[in-house]
């Protein structure tokens, strides 16, 4: 029973869809509750060993090494974030009326909040989230739950992405355009769209079918342009790098837009042993930036300068607890950035917190992150980090 509860916690974490969406006769085959004996064993970590699969090493923390000089909570109940640094605007998702999530915009200090998607007549008005800026600041791309589908909206939350499509909304919030229309069933979906730095391409992860704990996913890169005032996608390319394609999560483009940054578990590792990768789009060359197949590494975000990557990791912790780390864009010089799970840290939030999605701010001297702060992994704060 303890193992079952633990998997349920894992599946809710940090913007990643970690629920199996396999069709099984009349209903869904959940990873922690299924009549399929093999599925039960997969969910319980058969062969892999729980200590190896979910736990990393521990050591005494030296919180004084952190380069964080100030932590400011700018919203008590928020979600995934993206900071348009040159205009000092943050777009994010958060729960709204009726329990569904919506997309909001606020200033970099948390003021001037307004909702872009709330009760919009042209939108499905169910779960909407994982927003990201177009570099022009004129558009925001996000994912939205289909108005109708055969299963629970729990599967369609922004961090899970099943039964979701890609949409674009104008910054004024008056016009929206649907970019994809995936079939349902089967249980397809999208996750974490990101524009290239020149605004000409869009990158996202897409669920293709069921299988394993999380389903089988791919990475998509498409051309993005606006024709006659209407945004559209074209020349969509599909990638499934690695030896054993399983789960992928998209995080963005390299500084020159020639490569993509993502999380994956496709190198014969545990399904929860995500690593951080960079792939050259022209050659397909794959670089593992962390090489820790038994540690949870996710949400790699490139700095505005292109020199640093921040990511969330279970290093020195136990899943589902994470903290932020930084490294150079080639994977060198890894340093722990936050200690939200350490009561001795001067910026401890009063409860253990696990930062997930994050984004760099103006001059790379600030960062915004979504910190999950409750045991049920359902509530989180949006926090600004000032760096030395």
UniProtKB/TrEMBL annotation:
Tell me which species this is from: Candidatus Zambryskibacteria bacterium RIFCSPHIGHO2_02_FULL_43_37
What protein am I looking at? Dipeptidylpeptidase IV N-terminal domain-containing protein
Highest taxon above the source species:
Bacteria
Per its UniProt record, what SUPFAM superfamilies does this chain match? DPP6 N-terminal domain-like
């Amino acid at each position: 029973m303890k193992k079952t509860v633990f998997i349920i916690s894992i599946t809710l974490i940090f913007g990643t869809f970690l629920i199996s969406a396999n069709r099984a006769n009349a209903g869904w085959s959940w990873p922690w509750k299924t009549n399929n004996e093999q599925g039960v064993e997969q969910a319980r970590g058969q062969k892999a060993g729980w200590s190896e699969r979910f736990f990393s090493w521990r050591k005494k923390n030296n919180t004084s090494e952190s380069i964080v000089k100030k932590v400011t909570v700018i919203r008590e109940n928020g979600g995934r974030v993206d900071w348009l640094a040159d205009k000092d605007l943050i777009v994010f998702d958060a729960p709204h009326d009726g329990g569904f999530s919506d997309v909001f915009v606020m200033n970099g200090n948390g003021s001037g909040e307004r909702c872009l998607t709330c009760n919009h007549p042209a939108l499905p008005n169910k779960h909407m989230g994982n927003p990201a800026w177009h570099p022009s600041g004129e558009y925001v791309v996000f994912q939205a739950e289909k108005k109708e589908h055969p299963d629970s909206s729990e599967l369609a939350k922004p961090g899970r992405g099943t039964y979701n499509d890609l949409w674009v909304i104008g910054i004024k919030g008056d016009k929206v355009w649907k970019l994809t229309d995936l079939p349902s069933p089967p249980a397809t979906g999208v996750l974490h769209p990101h524009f290239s730095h020149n605004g000409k391409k869009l990158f996202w992860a897409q669920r293709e079918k069921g299988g394993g704990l999380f389903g089988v996913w791919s990475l998509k890169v498409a051309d993005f342009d606006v024709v006659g005032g209407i945004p559209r996608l074209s020349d969509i390319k599909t990638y499934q790098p690695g030896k054993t394609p399983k789960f992928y999560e998209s995080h963005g483009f390299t500084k020159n837009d020639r490569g993509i940054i993502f999380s994956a578990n496709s190198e014969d590792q545990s399904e929860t042993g995500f690593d951080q990768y960079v792939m050259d789009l022209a050659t397909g060359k794959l670089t593992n930036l962390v090489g820790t197949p038994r540690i949870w590494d996710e949400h790699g975000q490139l700095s505005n300068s292109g020199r640093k990557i921040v990511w969330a990791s279970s290093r020195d912790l136990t899943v589902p607890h994470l903290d932020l780390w930084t490294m150079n864009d080639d994977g060198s010089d890894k340093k722990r950035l936050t200690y939200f799970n350490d009561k001795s840290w001067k910026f401890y939030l009063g409860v253990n917190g696990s930062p997930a999605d994050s984004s760099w701010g103006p001059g790379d001297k600030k960062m915004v992150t979504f910190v999950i702060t409750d045991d049920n992994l359902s509530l989180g704060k949006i926090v600004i980090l000032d760096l030395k």
